[in-house]
Amino acid sequence: MIHAVPRVMGVVNVTPDSFSDGGRFFDPAAALSHARRLIDDGATILDIGGESTRPGADPVSEAEEIARVAPLIRAIRAESDVAISIDTMKPGVARAAVAAGADIWNDVAALRFAPDAPEVAAELGCEVILMHMRGEPGTMQDEPRYDDVVAEVEAFLLARALTAMAAGVEREKIWLDPGIGFGKTLEHNLALLAALPRLVALGYPVLLGASRKRFIAAIDPRAQDARDRLGGSLAVHLHGADCGVEAVRVHDVREMTQALAVWKAIVASGR
Ligand SMILES: Nc1nc2ncc(COP(=O)(O)OP(=O)(O)O)nc2c(=O)[nH]1
Fold it and tell me: Which residue range or ranges hold the Pterin-binding domain (predicted)?
């Protein structure tokens, strides 16, 4: 089956402690400049995050998270119609981000962080990305166990989609995301990646986010530093393209768009 080229979601972490680029874009001017560069490099979605989700990250208050992300979203929206997703677990942050111009709520907690999250998502009327995470960011990598990781992640995501729709979120606004690296061992991540066609077959747009993640270093020990994982990051997301994911969430947009252009040329030649 020939799939469309996935959209490229560029990551803008307005945080001091994100695992792969923490602090580089904490300054508002640096964050806006980075956002502009990612657009120039071909990103058609920008994922704005004000709180790191890595294990052991310091929690951020709602007010602080809003202070980090809302001005940047407003500044981007003032000069570009690029799609903007807000990477947050807090309904209050999602609300402020949508008011500032965001189009998508990217929730790594799949609307579980607060009891009213599904209702807020419905009220906002924005697209919602539901991601699987086992446990909490602080403890999720402490020996995660599954009987059948693919079946359990699939069941979780479908259940969260049903909860969102029961609260009033429109089906066509729901995305699913397997949550690579969120409470998974290397084996769990690889099983989920191999089963991506099964997740895509559920009929929701799928977001794949594996950029610079630790499991790449488990395969290539030379890549202990997150910045040394570009090759693995490109490989995973090209696999996602082969599987028909809707979008890939990456830090290295320029390299990803080039890789996808070559992938598209090869696929098109084989038609
Ligand atoms: N939907 C979705 N959102 C995500 N948000 C953050 C991270 C972690 O990456 P990063 O933002 O670079 O790190 P940090 O959370 O430390 O800021 N991964 C995902 C992901 O895989 N899917």
Answer: 6-261
pLDDT of residue 142: 84
Name residues whose C-beta falls within 8 Å of residue 159's C-beta, 6 or more positions apart in sequence.
Answer: none
Contacts of 83 (CB under 8 A, 6+ apart): 44, 45, 46, 103, 104
Residue 271 pLDDT class (50, 70, 90 cuts) = low
User: In terms of C-beta density within 10 A (0-12 exposed, 13-18 middle, 19 or more buried), how is residue 119 classed?
Assistant: middle
Lowest mean pLDDT among 2-6, 102-106, 128-132, 265-269: 2-6
Cβ atoms 65, 93 nearer than 8 A: yes
Pocket mutation for ligand 1, best pick of 54, 90, 107, 213 (most atoms within 8 Å of C-beta) = 54
Structure tokens at 227: 């910045």
- Whether ligand 1 lies within 6 angstroms of the CB of 13 is answered as yes
15 lines ligand 1 (CB under 6 A): yes
Given the structure tokens 């695992």, which residue do they identify? 19
